[in-house]
């Protein structure tokens, strides 16, 4: 009987160990493979109002905006961009819209291609034009942002633009942002006030305070000067150079 009891005890012990080990292994089993687990397969949505601002400028005091965002994965994205200005003292505005396919070529840089549409109105008169676009965009949050593009209009006119920004972290919340902008055109387009050669240069500085990362009011200044033939066109009815104080808010989602 003693031998039988020992044998039964041994068998029950082995069975208990097997059940416990099996339950533990089942609990620790890795999940079934899915593409959703791959980080580069996740779809992201991003929208940023880089500039929403009011400028004090020669009594016309324009409202300015620069908004962009994307939908896509790490490598391939669809970008939407718009920027422009509307005068607060007159019925006049200019705006630009872009829709771009973007593909990453580096951890921080994307090559982009798509279309651009410009719309302007003054009083009761409207005008518009379309472009094909190829560009390069580099973005490293809290470091730098570079956005450059070459444009071919529906009439075959070729132009290009470049904007570069750099973040200076004075503290974790107080951030300075110097900005450089310029553009160039191969052909003159008088109806849009564009001459051939370098068209303009812009320098600015914005100082923002991030109450939270997604919301930051700012103040600053902006200086712009038209160049070459574009400056000659501006002299007939406008200003070649201007300096403005500004205030606005930067938001992202």
TrEMBL record:
UniProt protein name: Copper resistance protein B
Coiled-coil region: none
A Gene Ontology molecular function term of the record: copper ion binding
InterPro entries in UniProt: Cu-R_B_prcur
GO annotations of cellular component type: cell outer membrane
Keywords, alphabetical: Signal
Signal peptide span: 1-27
GO BP terms: intracellular copper ion homeostasis
Keyword Lyase: no
Taxonomic placement: Bacteria, Pseudomonadati, Balneolota, Balneolia, Balneolales
């Amino acid at each position: 009987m003693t031998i039988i009891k020992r044998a039964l005890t041994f068998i029950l012990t082995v069975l208990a160990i097997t059940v416990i080990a099996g339950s533990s292994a089942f609990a620790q089993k890795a999940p079934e493979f899915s593409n959703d687990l791959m980080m580069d397969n996740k779809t992201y949505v991003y929208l940023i109002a880089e500039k929403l601002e009011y400028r004090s400028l020669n009594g016309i005091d324009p409202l300015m905006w620069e908004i962009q965002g994307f939908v896509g994965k790490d490598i391939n994205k669809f970008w939407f961009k718009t920027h422009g200005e509307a005068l607060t003292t007159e019925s006049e505005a200019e705006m630009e819209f872009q829709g771009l396919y973007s593909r990453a070529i580096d951890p921080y840089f994307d090559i982009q291609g798509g279309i651009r549409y410009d719309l302007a109105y003054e009083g009761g008169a409207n005008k518009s034009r379309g472009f094909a676009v190829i560009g390069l965009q580099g973005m490293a949050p809290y470091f730098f942002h570079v956005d450059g593009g070459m444009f071919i209009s529906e009439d075959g006119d070729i132009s290009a633009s470049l904007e570069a920004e750099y973040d200076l972290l004075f503290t974790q919340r107080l951030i300075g942002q110097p900005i450089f902008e310029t553009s160039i055109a191969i052909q003159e387009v008088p109806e849009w006030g564009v001459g051939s050669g370098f068209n303009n240069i812009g320098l600015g500085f914005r100082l923002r305070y991030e109450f939270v990362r997604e919301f930051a009011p700012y103040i600053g200044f902006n200086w712009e000067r038209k160049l070459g033939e574009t400056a000659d066109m501006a002299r007939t009815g406008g200003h070649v150079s201007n300096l403005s104080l500004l205030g606005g808010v930067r938001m992202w989602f």
